[in-house]
Design goal:
With 184 residues, this protein is of the alpha+beta class. 33% of the residues lie in helices and 38% in strands. It has helices spanning 16-26, 57-69, 85-88, 107-117, 152-165, 175-181; strands at 2-11, 30-39, 42-51, 74-79, 92-100, 121-129, 138-147, 169-174. A hairpin with a 2-residue loop joins strand 2 (30-39) and strand 3 (42-51). The two termini are 39 Å apart.
Length: 184
């Protein structure tokens, strides 16, 4: 079976995931992964689905566009490429980087520049900015995969220096520790 990635954007309302998954079901597709969130009042969802060999990408796209444009949703669809075997074989350690501080332009760019410079992959990012100087109102949580060969001490030092320059408090924890501490 071929796999596709479907991105859906639009104003949030109940039933969006149900509408997309119903269309995929009717087209004999299997939803394998879904990630969706609400950003302020906007829905953003990404679906990975396997599709039967007798269904063309064009027919699936037409079906999705037909029904989802009626409820004012924007849809992008593309074939999923096989993962690069070199990248898939890299041994990683999962970490969680959390920052808190006053809201201002350049916070995400400042932290992600350091992460990228060390070849670290961001697997999930949650950023909530309510504005103002109250640090607890402006939080970024980066889940990252750090390749085993990366100099973790240098990464840690650079992130802490950048956070200080941006007036951010920063926490860097192995994901296992983060999950243990934050378990409800």
């Amino acid at each position: 079976m071929n796999k596709v990635i479907i991105s859906v954007l639009g104003q949030d309302r109940p039933g969006i995931v149900a509408a997309v998954s119903k269309i995929l079901f009717r087209q004999n597709c299997n939803v394998e992964n879904v990630s969706q969130t609400i950003l302020q009042s906007e829905f953003a969802g990404i679906f990975i689905a396997s599709m039967p060999a007798d269904l063309s990408l064009e027919n699936l796209k037409e079906s999705l566009l037909d029904e989802l444009h009626r409820i004012d949703l924007h849809v992008q669809i593309k074939s999923m490429q096989d993962q690069d075997p070199v990248f898939a074989s890299i041994e990683i350690e999962p970490f969680v980087i959390t920052t808190k501080g006053p809201d201002r332009k350049g916070l995400v760019a400042g932290i992600t520049e350091i992460i990228a410079n060390h070849g670290v992959n961001i697997t999930n990012l949650q950023a909530v900015f309510k504005g103002g100087d109250e640090p607890g109102d402006n939080i970024m949580i980066y889940e990252v995969d750090v390749p085993v060969g990366v100099d973790q001490k240098a990464l840690d030092n650079e992130l802490r220096q950048r956070a200080k320059a941006l007036s951010l408090d920063i926490s860097i924890q192995h994901r296992n520790i983060f999950e243990a501490i934050n378990r409800i």
